[in-house]
Amino acid sequence: MEQLGIDYKLLLAQLINFLLLFYLYKKFLAKPFSSFIKQQKYKEKLQEEYEQKLADLQQEKERILQSAKKQAQQEAETIIKAAERSAEELKKRLMAEVKQEVDRERKKQLAELENEKALFEKELKQKVLDIALKLTEQTLKEFMTEERKKEYQKLLINNLQKIN
After folding, report:
1. At 136, is the pLDDT very low, low, confident or very high (cuts 50, 70, 90)?
2. Lowest-confidence pick of 5-9, 10-14, 56-60
3. Element containing residue 26 per DSSP (H, E)
4. What does each C-alpha distance from 71 to 13, 60, 64, 84, 101 come to in angstroms?
5. Within a 10 A sphere around the Cβ of 120, how many other Cβ atoms?
6. Number of other residues whose CB lies within 10 A of the CB of residue 144
7. pLDDT tens, 137-157?
8. 164 falls in which pLDDT band (50, 70, 90)?
9. What are phi and psi for residue 3, nearest 5 degrees?
10. Exposed / middle / buried, residue 60 (Cβ in 10 Å: 0-12, 13-18, 19+)
11. What CA–CA distance (Å, rounded) separates 129 from 136?
């Protein structure tokens, strides 16, 4: 092979250099580079999982928000209906109280009017009696003697007492 120009020592040295270079390449370049690539792939996978979870969480957040809005709206409607019912009941109760108060005041006013009417009638009767008595006295003074006046006055008083 020397005739072909192949030097075994050189070939062996190149083979050893190649193996040494291959070993160094594998140990110091290939493994860290491979590790770096694997780590980048792992990071990309984690990033994708993170983004997927984030998207899922976003969808869950939207669903929860929609649910909360719907529930809040239902609760608001329930509260509004309850407030309307309460207001209607309060209105009815107040109307009943006002009606009762008006009835009480009306009865009180009627009672006062009845009392005033009775008092007025009593005063009127008394004035009529006084006038009648004075008229009778004046008439009797002019036409009757003292004895007959006294008899008529007694009769008149007795009759007036019977009328009352």
Report:
1. confident
2. 5-9
3. none
4. 83, 16, 10, 20, 44
5. 10
6. 15
7. 777 677 767 777 678 778 888
8. low
9. -70, -30
10. exposed
11. 10
Residue listed under structure tokens 């009127």:
124
| Residues 35-55, mean pLDDT to the nearest whole number | 94
3-state per-residue secondary structure call for 107-120: HHHHHHHHHHHHHH
Encode pLDDT of 80-132 as tens digits.
999 999 999 999 999 999 999 999 999 999 999 999 999 999 999 898 888 88
Check if the beta carbon of residue 152 is closer than 8 Å to that of residue 121: no
The CA-atom distances, in angstroms, between 3 and each of 7, 8, 11, 12, 14 are 10, 12, 15, 17, 19
List C-alpha distances in Å: 69 to 58, 62, 65, 73, 112: 16, 10, 6, 6, 62
Helix, strand, or coil here: 3?
Answer: coil
Tell me how far the alpha carbon of residue 28 is from its chain's centroid: 75
- Type of residue at 12: L
Separation CA 119–CA 27 (nearest Å) = 130
